[in-house]
Amino acid sequence: MSSRLQAESLYKVFGRRPGEAVERLRSGADREELRADGTTAAVIDASFTVEPGEIFVVMGLSGSGKSTLLRMLNGLLEPTAGHVRFDDQDLTALGDRALREVRSKKISMVFQHFALFPHRSVRENAAYGLEVQGVPRAERERRADEALALCGLGGWEKSWPDELSGGMQQRVGLARALATDAELLLMDESFSALDPLIRRDMQDQLLELQKTLKKTIVFITHDLNEAMRLGDRIAVMRDGRIVQVGTAEDILVRPADDYVASFTQDVDRSRVLTAGAVMDPDVRGDEADCACETATPDTPFNELCAISARLSHPVAVLDKKRKLLGVVPRQRLVGFLGDERGEPAACATPRAKAVTTDA
After folding, report:
1. Start and end of every ABC transporter domain (predicted)?
2. What does the pLDDT look like over 101-153, one tens digit per residue?
3. Are residues 188 and 253 in the same domain?
């Protein structure tokens, strides 16, 4: 199956002579050199693919270029160079009218600030995208009500936006995107304006919806814990460039450079890592005939700690056929928690601080 979305060597430069600036960047110039000449390179040579049904998270600090990158994916910003392909259609080659057609029917966007119309009811807000498409009123209201029910807002259809909490208003924004049945959802810091508990509820809601709807989603965030929780894969951006693309485990265990390693040092690893990520694969065998407790590659880190605390030897990690894939010594668990004291202390669950930055 081919990728649903492809970004190919995307550049976005603001300022004078942007084409010339791209050539300078390709020749090795950096952002600071261009800034000295009054030119800003927001996105530099960004390439990635997004698979059907995948939540692809783009994360980075403020000013890293992630929101600019997102707006090039649906043509709200025209790339200075490069291509965006959606279902093998080159969006960067489309005219304005064709691009508006794609945005109205195939690609929906959920914003950080709810962008609801205060003079329209919850139902009318959820149906707005369908109204733009020219869908008859009865049909758009039916589809809007179905989307609202999916987002936990059944019974609130006739309410006004100012009668809803912030989390409920964001659910209306999500329902509006779902009502159009768009194949691609672009979510720009969609939960960042919410209080922490409501934000986690929205993350739960998105993950639950995804089990059924299997939408292709590009999700922008500056919060590493949110990225780790939501993303099937994560792209880390720095100074306009994508410095690493991988799973949460890839980024935690195999950071591409010192920047990624430092960025992830305070993340709560126990919520992300599994036995397959932390095991020592150099210890192998054809068969594990062991009566004691074992783990599978998907065993969560917290559960692995509990197993290790009950054993006097390393935990064996087995596949479904009971073949030994590797082992996890207690000291290895401690190492992955970043505890250099060497005392496993029953592998208590760590409570690392959330990694957040200003938006």
Report:
1. 5-264
2. 898 889 998 877 777 899 999 999 999 989 988 899 999 999 999 999 988 88
3. yes
CATH number of the domain that residue 290 is part of: 3.10.580.10
Query: Are residues 10 and 99 part of one domain?
Result: yes
Residues 249 and 290 grouped into a single domain:
no
Residues 258 and 291 reside in one and the same domain: no
Domain count, the chain: 2
Query: Is the residue at 167 inside a domain?
Result: no
Helix (H, G, I), strand (E, B) or coil at 16: coil
User: What is residue 117's three-state secondary structure?
Assistant: coil
Write the pLDDT tens digit of every residue in 229-261.
899 999 999 999 999 999 988 898 888 999 898
Answer whether 25's CB lies under 8 Å from 10's CB: no
Q: What percent of the chain has pLDDT over 90?
A: 42
Q: Are residues 276 and 261 in the same domain?
A: no
311-to-297, 316, 326, 346 alpha-carbon distances in Å: 18, 11, 16, 10
* 273 neighbors 252 (Cβ within 8 angstroms): yes
Do 329 and 296 sit in the same domain of this protein?
yes
Residue 181 φ/ψ, nearest 5 degrees? 60, 35
Q: How many CA atoms lie within 13 A of 97 on its CB side?
A: 0
Indicate the pLDDT class of residue 355, thresholds 50, 70 and 90: very low
The phi, psi pair for 312, rounded to 5°, reads -100, 5
pLDDT at 238: 93
Q: How far is CA 307 from the centre of its chain?
A: 31
Residue type, 240: G
The number of residues in the chain equals: 359
For residue 286, the enclosing domain spans 271-347
Q: Output the CA–CA distances (angstroms, integers) from residue 300 to 146, 267, 291, in the order listed.
A: 35, 16, 21
**207-230 pLDDT, tens per residue?**
998 998 899 999 999 888 899 889
Q: Do 317 and 200 share a structural domain?
A: no
What the block records as the tokens of 350 is 């760590």
Q: Are residues 96 and 192 in the same domain?
A: yes
pLDDT of res. 37: 84
CATH number, position 61: 3.40.50.300
Cβ atoms of 353 and 225 closer than 8 Å = no
